Amino acid sequence: MDVELLAVGAGPSNLALAVALEEMAPDIAQDTLIIERDEEVSWQRGMLLPEALSQVSFLKDLVTLRNPRSRFSFLNYLHATGRLDEFINMGSFVPYRVELAGYLKWTAESLSMVDIRTKSECARIAPVWTREEITGWEAHLTDGRTVRSRYLVIGAGRDARIPDQFAAIARERVIHSTEYLPRVATLRKDLPYRVLVVGAGQSAAELFSAVQQDLPECRPTMVMRSIGLNCYETSKFNNELFFGSFIDTFYASRPEARRQMLAEMRHTNYAGLAPGMMESLYRQLYLDRLSGRSRLRVVPMHDITAAREEGDEVVVELTDWRTGAVQEVRTDLVLLGTGFSPEMPRMVRHVADAIGLDDIRVTRDYRLVIDRPSSAACYLQGVNEATHGIADSLLSVLAPRANDIVQDILTHRGALRAPLPVAAAG
C-alpha cells in the first residue's frame, strides 16, 4: 500500500495532525493513513478511572489553539453529544479523563478524509533508498502488510518505564499504570492481595487509591524514594512555560539553559500530585489509622534495590537511603506508577539506526534531521522535551505542533515540486 503520509499511533498527537491536515491540506489528508495497534482509538485506557481529572484546560484540545472555529473542538463534541449544558454547569476548566477519551474517539470517527486503521501494529520501519538518497519509508506491519510513504510521523508515545529490578519478574505479577484497568479486571475480588505500589507521582497515587476499590480485600503499600508526597508546583507564571509560543524561546536557548529549565520545571508535571488527589489520599490514610485497620502503608525514603520471585510471591528488597538498613517486603502484586522512559522510543531509535544516524535531532518544526540526501521526511511527536520544552509530551501543545508539522510538510512538498533553476548560457 502506498500513501503520501503514514502516521504511527492514533493518539492525541496524530489525531491533532489529522484534523490539521483535513483543515489545512485536504489533498494530503486524502492520502494519509494512521495505523493503531489497539482494536479501537483510545487514550490512557489503562487509567480511565471514574473520578480521574485531566490536568489540562479543555481549551487545549486538538484544535482550538490553532483554529478556534473548528468543528473538531472539545466544545463542539459536548454539543454534538448533548452534554454542553452539564459541562458548563459543572464550572470547571478541566474535564474528566474519560471525557477526553470520548472526545478523541469522537474526533477519529468524525474525520472524513484521513484513514485510520486499527488492529494494525507496526513491527519495523526502514528507509527506502534510491541510489544514495532516501525517497520514502517502508513500514512492515505484524500481519505481513507493508505500507510505503514519503512522509512519516511517529506519534506512538514513549515506552513504559519498567525498573530493572522487575524486568525478570513474571508479567502476571507486575502491572504498569498503562495496563492497570484491563489487567486488574481479570483478578479475583475476594482475595487479600498484598499490593506494592511503586512511585510518588500522580499515577502512583491514583493506583494506590484505585486498587483499594478494585480489590476490596487488598492491603496496599506505597514505596517511594522521595521524602514524601508533594503537590505539583504550579502557578499562572509557571503555566506560561506551557504556552505554544514558549517553544520558540526554549528551542533557541543554549543546551545548558534548556537543561536548567527542565530541571526547575520537573515538579510542575512529574513527581507531584494534583491538590485534589493529595487531599483525598491523606484522608484515606487518616481514616485507615482512625479505624485501626492499618490496611494502608506509605514507605518514603527507600530505594528498591532488588526483587525476586519465591513461589507465588514477589520478594522486594527495600533500602533506607538514610540509614542503609535493608528490609524485605513480600507481595502478591506490584503496581508501577513509574511513568515512561526518558529515552527515545525503540521505534524511533530503530529508524535512526536504519538510516545510520549518530544522534537523534529534530528541527524546530519537529522534522528528524537526516544528514544525507533525502526527498522524504520523518517527524517526531511527543518525544522532544530536550529541545522543545516540558510541554512537548503533554496535551498543551497539540494544536500548535500539528500546525507546525503541516506547514513544514507543505513547504517541503513545494520545494520538491519547484522547477530546477536553468543555468545561464554563455
UniProtKB/TrEMBL annotation:
It comes from the Bacteria. It comes from Actinokineospora fastidiosa. Its cofactor is FAD. The lineage of its organism: Bacteria, Bacillati, Actinomycetota, Actinomycetes, Pseudonocardiales. Keywords: FAD, Flavoprotein, Monooxygenase, NADP, Oxidoreductase. Pathway: Siderophore biosynthesis. Pfam families: Lys_Orn_oxgnase. It catalyses: L-lysine + NADPH + O2 = N(6)-hydroxy-L-lysine + NADP(+) + H2O. Gene3D superfamilies: FAD/NAD(P)-binding domain. InterPro entries: FAD/NAD-bd_sf (IPR036188), Lys/Orn_oxygenase (IPR025700). This is L-lysine N6-monooxygenase MbtG. GO terms for molecular function: L-lysine 6-monooxygenase (NADPH) activity. GO terms for biological process: intracellular iron ion homeostasis. Belongs to the lysine N(6)-hydroxylase/L-ornithine N(5)-oxygenase family. It is an enzyme of class 1 (oxidoreductase). Its EC number is 1.14.13.59.
